[in-house]
Amino acid sequence: MRLRILSALLIASLLATGCAASTPPSSPSPSVAPVTIPQIDAAHVTSVQVRLKGDLELASEQIAVTAQGDTVVLSGTVGTADERQRAESLARSVKGVEKVDNRIEVRPAQ
Q1: CA-wise closest residue to 94 among 48, 31, 54, 52
Q2: Handedness of CA 10, 11, 14, 19 (dihedral sign)
Q3: By residue range, what is the domain housing residue 61?
Q4: Of 94, 110, 89, residue with least CA distance to 102
Q5: Total domain count for the chain?
Q6: Short-list 23, 18, 44, CA closest to 100
Q7: How far is it, in rounded angstroms, from Cα 92 to Cα 47?
Q8: How far is CA 96 from CA 10, 45, 51, in A?
Q9: pTM
Q10: How far apart are alpha carbons 10 and 63 in whole angstroms?
Q11: Which region, left, alpha or beta, applies to residue 49 given φ > 0 means left and ψ of -120 to 50 means alpha?
Q12: What contacts 75, CB < 8 A, 6 or more positions away?
């Protein structure tokens, strides 16, 4: 008799734990919105180029403007560190530009 009771209790507990483990959660997982990374496009590059060419200090300098993902890349040469910094500041002033990789080299005129 005891064996039957123990067997029944064992079977009941196994069934109860098995059912509890297989029930779905009562509340759904919150959905996470995908993160979008803003991209720099040709319009941003053109806007930076226009700003640089329209600046009296930088108009004659050889500065190339390209885009890599979400970053504007400046390259070329200028005569002073102030001109290098000015080019970066002008690039950052364009709406939508948040990252600037300034690869401009300073080479003083000889």
Answers
A1: 48
A2: negative
A3: 42-106
A4: 89
A5: 1
A6: 44
A7: 11
A8: 67, 11, 14
A9: 0.66
A10: 80
A11: alpha
A12: 63, 64, 66, 103, 104
**Residue 40: partners with Cβ closer than 8 Å, 6 or more residues away:** 67, 68, 69, 70, 71, 72, 96, 97
pLDDT digits 0-9 by tens, 33-67: 666 666 878 999 999 999 999 999 999 999 999 99
Say if 92 falls within a structural domain.
yes
Residue linked to tokens 């109860």: 16
Token pair belonging to 10: 């064992």
In a domain, 9, yes or no: no
Contact indicator for 77, 104 with CB cutoff of 8 Å = yes
Note the pLDDT tens digit of each residue in 64-88.
999 998 899 999 999 999 999 999 9
